[in-house]
Amino acid sequence: MQHPLVIIGAGPIGLAAAANAADRSIDFVVLEAGPEAGAAVGEWAHVRLFSAWSELVDPVARRLLDATGTWTAPDEKTYPTGGEWRTRYLQPLADILDKTEHGSVRYGARVVGVSRDGRDLVVDSGREGDPFAIHVETQTGHERLLARAVVDASGTWARPNPLGADGYPALGERDNAARFAYGIPDFSDPAVSARYAGKHVAVAGKGASAQGVLIGLARLAERDPGTRVSWLLRRPSVGDAFGGGDNDQLEERGKLGQAAKAATSSGHVVNVTQFRTRAVETQPDGRLTLTSTNGQQVTDVDEVIVVTGYRPDFSFLSEVRLDLDPALGAARFLAAQIHPDHHSCGDVAPHGYKELGQPEEGLYLVGMKSYGRAPSFLAMTGFEQVRSVVAALDGDLEAADRVDLVLPETGVCDGAGAFDDATATASGGGCCGAPAEPQVLTLGGLGVR
Fold it and tell me: What SS3 string covers the chain?
């Protein structure tokens, strides 16, 4: 009996993998922890992406959708919100894939373990010839499935980085969880606006999501002047935070940085540099004091918004063999090209099944998870990743080896520089050997206008 390909995650990249499997008549099962396709995308449904529709639809998936005769393709030049991406593309694609002869999409199916059938991590003998054993938690209990191969497209959304400077929650962060939000709040929601209006809000982070938060709060402050923002930056300067502007080949990403720069110059935002949070304490009046590792304090804080990136979950892969970069938790081949401290050029080398495969033969990390903690992933990267991986699983090595990927430049060439070196980002050079401009970091292709 030929066991199916198991794909973990019904997000954009997991569904693209399933579409490629269906196109090649490979039996597959997509396991999604959430209640619907693109469940994680639905949690930031209000955010407008800075990639256009032309870069957000997998080519094979498009063919499957077009073949139905009922799908209306979006205008390729427009920019959807996360909600539009999910309702107009991801869910229709999942519905089609669930009805195909060769596959199914299961919701409420959380993968809690991946191993070899009858063999734990230590056992060597016969390992490569055995199927994978997939342990799944569902509403009806624990299940165990067998798989010929595993494509892990589970992403990183479920594990936001904490405020604490050490990689763990700051002292008092968990105790004050009701005052914390992780990600981009929907400031168009009246209840959300009421939470932040007229308040002192601390914002931690400097990537695209942080920029979106600063823009939203600045607009809120225009309506309610009592709103003020402390922007917490771990780096020594703000100068490298707003991106390449007109030089960014993703036009909306460039506009995002420029809008964020204007927001921070509006008079509502105070920049607090070299602030790496050690503790969160409750004041007698119920407000918060944030203390950094160097003794700086930001007092009288009402709310904290943390947008410092995400990290992958490897807990359910503890019984299979992985080869990951020790710093990023990314596929080792990719690490040097995507590390945010060293590289931000957008010229990641074409890569596919050879680079994404793990020592556990038949296991592939794809999508955001293949980038680990690096924030610069774009959907088009993932589409090409899974095309190659599924071709290899089908034995079509000619197609699998042919990996073509050209990513849009950010308009900048330097990485973030030395952690505490205020001159590092202004010294020029960088990874591309050209004078450096300000840097923008992206998060999973997200962005707002």
Answer: CCCCEEEECCCHHHHHHHHHHHHCCCCEEEECCCCCCCHHHHCCCCCECCCCHHHCCCHHHHHHHHHHCCCCCCCCCCCCEHHHHHHHHHHHHHHHHHCCCCEEEECCCEEEEEEECCECCCCCCCHHHCCEEEEEEECCEEEEEEECEEEECCCCCCCECCCCCCCCCCECCCCCHHHEEECCCCCCCHHHHHHHCCCEEEEECCCHHHHHHHHHHHHHHHHCCCCEEEEECCCCCCCCCCCCHHHCCCHHHHHHHHHHHHHHCCCCEEEECCCCEEEEEECCCCCEEEEECCCCEEEEECEEEECCCECCCCHHHCCCCCCECCCCCCEHHHHHHHCCCCCCCCCCCCCCHHHHECCCCCEEECHHHHHCCCCCCCHHHHHHHHHHHHHHHCCCHHHHHCCCCCCCCCCCCCCCCCCCCCCHHHCCCCCCCCCCCCCCCCCCCCCCC
The Cα 71–Cα 49 span in angstroms is 21
Domain with CATH 3.50.50.60 in the chain: 5-158+310-401, 177-306
In whole angstroms, what is the distance from residue 378 CA to residue 447 CA? 11
Average pLDDT over the chain, rounded to an integer = 87
Residue 421 scores a pLDDT above 50: no
**133 has which bridge partners?**
115, 146
Q: What is the mean pLDDT of residues 340-357?
A: 78
- Predicted TM-score (pTM) of this structure: 0.88
Q: CA distances (Å), 122 to each of 43, 131, 320, in order?
A: 38, 16, 9
Given CATH 3.40.50.410, say whether it is the number of domain 177-306: no
Q: Is residue 364 within 8 Å of 152, Cβ to Cβ?
A: yes
Model pLDDT, residue 426: 37
Pair of tokens at residue 210: 């942080």
Please state the rounded mean pLDDT for residues 294-321. Answer: 97
What is the spatial distance between Cα 112 and Cα 6, in angstroms, rounded to a whole number? 13
Phi, psi of 16 (to 5 degrees): -65, -40
Cα end-to-end span (Å), the chain: 51
| 5-158+310-401 topology per CATH | FAD/NAD(P)-binding domain (3.50.50)
